[in-house]
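Students often ask what a holo structure prediction actually looks like on paper. The answer is less mysterious than it sounds. You provide the chain, you provide the ligand, and the output is a string of discrete structure tokens encoding the 3D arrangement of the protein together with iron/sulfur cluster.
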Amino acid sequence: MSSAQWTDDKRKDDGMKDELDMFCNQCSQAAHGEACTTIGVCGKQPTLARLQDNLSYTIKGVAAFSYHLRELGVVNEEIDTFLTKAVYSTLTNVNFSSEDFIALALEAGRINALAMRLLKDAHIEAYGEPGPTKVQTGTVAGRGIIVTGHSLKALEELLKATEDTGINIYTHSEMLPAHAYPGLKKYKHLVGNLGKAWFDQKQLFSGHEIAVLGTSNCVLLPLEKYRDRMFTIGSARLPDVKHIEGYDFSPLIEVAKSLPELTEMAGEVELTTGFSASAVLGLKDKIKSLVDEGKIRHFFLVGGCDSPIKSMDYYRQFVKALPNDTIVMTLACGKFRFNDLDLGDIEGVPRLIDLGQCNDAIVAVDIAGALAEAFGVSLNELPLTIVLSWMEQKAVSILWSLLALGVKGIHLGPVAPPWVNDDIMAVLIKEYDIRLTSEAQLDIDEALGVANAL
Ligand code: SF4
Ligand code: SF4
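The corresponding structure tokens follow.
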């Protein structure tokens, strides 16, 4: 099946429309004064337009990680210099070379890996190395503020500002891994995690009389029901929602104090997050002997962005169907598809290992590299299958980071990125052995080398 057919089928399942050959409206020559949608008036070909889009999306992911790095006081000249060059290359009539845009995407992936590594280092320097931590998912009696987005710095400042106020702080979605950092979990009023991935905000925030702080991308336009008790900080902005400047949380605290108290309600599950590279690699010798004894057959990295489309069900089906002699590492909000499952352990090695936020993909890379070294094989020879879900541009930047690091055979889903046409997909398949997700059991069988999967 071609990538276009695969994408068309999944998009129809999810009620989406067919795609255009290209969409470029960046200059006054745009066809019909609107957009070039089949070929550019300037001669730009659809694949080139799509590669420009691909680079634009990838560098937005780099910018997001770089922004959070700057929040922690780290500025990196190599990242900034590359971003300037990459943004300029997408300006009208600068660069008509498809090959160059593929090279730039790979370079963006390398730079993104640098940004993720620096961000991880900065998080550890600021808050200590995370360790496996159990997190409650219910409410405790009292008033509260829930924090969504990705900024650990904003959360830290809020925790400081709310200490001894009687207000409890909850995390949502990608803020879950915050509970595992010593410098954040030391605050006793950081009491738990509510909800799942980013897209349950309207239901979650309507259902709890709680103040809300959005700290980054993946905030949703609020319902009227909670607009007055929602605030943003950093790069997040929402219409008619108050914005916090300079970490002065007093208006947010005032609103939180004016709300009725939440009642105590136990959550349905207790989540475990915060496996650092050293927490996992501390088990390296044990993992090696379990592999040698045939008790661990395969590792999976199943993670990325969640989205509300129907075909995301794949990821839960996939993890549920994995045999008991496999280990699953995960990260980012895609994990909320399955992190309530109790997968147990293999002689003390947990079968479900939550490495953290999306930028913690670099932790997965480090773990995979160390395991490959322990087994005396290359990264691509490790019994490891990567199954990525993408929703927006940070996931795309992570995909290009993995490709830039030479990782092959990644399974990508639940739909192909819509700006990738058959020409681009052909290159990704030929050079990087990218596979598109199909049926969960078929993909598992293929990964595990079961003969009848073919
Ligand atoms: S840059 Fe080229 S493809 Fe884009 S709108 Fe202008 S003429 Fe059309
Ligand atoms: S992992 Fe992706 S989809 Fe999820 S909150 Fe982060 S950026 Fe958004």
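The pocket of iron/sulfur cluster (ligand 1) is lined by residues 24-27, 29-30, 36, 40-42, 44, 92 (CB under 6 Å).
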